[in-house]
Automatic annotation (TrEMBL):
Keyword Iron appears in the UniProt entry: yes
A biological process term (GO) from this entry: Mo-molybdopterin cofactor biosynthetic process
InterPro entries: Aldolase_TIM, Elp3/MiaA/NifB-like_rSAM, MoaA, MoaA-like, MoaA_NifB_PqqE_Fe-S-bd_CS, MoaA_twitch, MoCo_biosynth_MoaA/MoaC, rSAM
Cofactors demanded by this protein: [4Fe-4S] cluster
Name of protein: GTP 3',8-cyclase
EC top class, as a word: lyase
Record keywords: 4Fe-4S, GTP-binding, Iron, Iron-sulfur, Lyase, Metal-binding, Molybdenum cofactor biosynthesis, Nucleotide-binding, S-adenosyl-L-methionine
UniProt source species: Aphis gossypii
Short name of one Pfam family: Mob_synth_C
Length: 353
């Protein structure tokens, strides 16, 4: 039964058994990269419709019964944690629209080997729920905010621009509650928000924010256009026109971002250069999506269901075999900027970043 599930998923199954593998080996790929960071998408739904993420015409969502239940999520995360994952990032869609999210965070907190329970959110509900999230065990927070202008916020998110105020209030609350730093993600796009660079940098003068600029990436039906993408080196040159002392600073290990700062500012600035200078060599991430598929690389289209074997009664060891195969199938790098737009992938909203 288990084998049937695997074949249906078109995954190449080598019959390596995890029985004799050491704890470290199972989540280590053929290039020696250890995967200690699991991104877990809790939902495919969202209260925004960001143009670079959600296809204009929407996207087909999975039936409720095809989504992982809370117990299934916790069982899988516990298994990953047993084999070396110590950082979980809750994402979506928008994770905060998920019913029971607080109970999920609490269950993750009970997995004692997890050091980081992080969330990436659009920030709309933080003023309402962040205190509860923190109490439940959330200890790292990334908020996505692409503009400081109401009109532009409305255009990018295809929603009411006034919602911007709620996100800004959420970021301030996160700072007050001691999240440090609060990482703010911003997809930088020519003709949309590139002219706000100076304002974004100013946000880091008195706030312990890491404002991180992400190069616009191609996903299914997101109208990616190389001309709209701002290469990170161009963003640095632009910032240096106003802040000539802008300088590199220390990166966290396995970080997606190259960190910089303006001397004297308490926050800092990061560049997530997925398109023009990948950081695949230090990749430590796997992705569990809301429908229970495991994706070893953001840009690799092969996925394997963990939900189906789980529901068919697979043992931990059988699940580990599947996970280990997925990790071993991970490519060294993504396919490069020229090829990525032509490659099939999910819309980003169904992956979770
Ligand atoms: N190419 C690539 N981009 C990634 C990967 N992980 C995150 N990103 C990009 O970085 C953006 C921000 O991701 P976040 O959800 O804030 O997570 P993170 O960058 O891992 O955050 P930290 O754990 O705080 O460093 C995502 O939307 C992606 O655009 C990855 O593994 N590969
Ligand atoms: C898919 S969202 C899910 C979490 C949450 N809804 C949020 O917006 O933070 C995760 C991250 O993916 C980023 N993202 C989405 N589409 C992208 C694209 N085409 N290129 C680069 N980053 C993208 C968003 O900016 C966000 O920071
Ligand atoms: S980036 Fe986040 S907030 Fe925006 S549409 Fe995608 S999932 Fe929703
Ligand atoms: S593109 Fe794939 S291999 Fe490269 S950093 Fe992202 S997830 Fe890792």
């Amino acid at each position: 039964m288990l084998l049937r599930t695997i074949c249906k998923n078109k995954w190449s199954v080598k019959s390596i058994s995890t029985k004799n593998s050491s704890l470290d080996e199972i989540l280590t790929d053929t290039f020696g990269r250890k995967h200690n960071y699991l991104r877990v998408s809790l939902t495919e739904r969202c209260n925004l419709r960001c143009e670079y993420c959600m296809p204009l015409k929407g996207t087909k969502l999975s039936e409720q019964s095809k989504l992982l239940s809370n117990n299934e999520i916790v069982r899988l995360v516990s298994l990953f944690a047993k084999y070396g994952v110590d950082k979980i990032r809750i994402t979506g869609g928008e994770p905060t629209v998920k019913k029971d999210i607080i109970q999920i965070v609490e269950s993750l907190r009970d997995i004692k080997t997890l050091k980081t329970i992080a969330m990436t959110t659009n920030g709309l509900t933080l003023t309402k729920y962040l205190v509860d999230f923190q109490r439940a065990g959330l200890n790292a927070l990334n908020v996505s905010l692409d503009t400081l202008q109401q009109n532009t916020y409305g255009k990018i998110t295809r929603r009411n621009g006034q919602l911007l105020k709620r996100v800004l209030a959420g970021i301030d609350l996160a700072l007050q509650l001691g999240f440090s730093p609060v990482k703010v993600n911003c997809v930088l796009m020519r003709g949309i928000n590139f002219d706000e660079l100076r304002d974004f940098v100013e946000m880091t003068r008195h706030r312990t924010i890491s404002y991180r600029f992400i190069e616009f990436m191609p996903f299914s039906m997101n109208d990616w256009d190389e001309k709209r993408m701002v290469p990170y080196k161009e963003a640095i040159r632009e910032i240096m026109k106003s802040y000539p002392n802008f300088e590199p600073c220390n990166n966290e290990p396995n970080s997606t971002s190259k960190m910089y700062r303006v001397p004297g500012f308490v926050g800092n600035i990061g560049f997530i250069s997925s398109m023009t200078e990948d950081y695949c060599d230090s990749c430590n991430r796997l992705r569990l999506m809301a429908d229970g598929n495991l994706k070893a690389c953001l840009f690799q289209n092969n996925e394997i269901s963990l939900r189906d074997p789980l529901r068919e009664g697979a043992s931990d060891e059988e699940l580990l075999d599947i996970i280990s195969n997925a990790v071993n199938d991970k490519k060294r790098k993504h396919a490069g900027m020229k090829n990525l737009p032509r490659m099939p992938n999910r819309p980003m909203i169904l992956i979770g970043g």
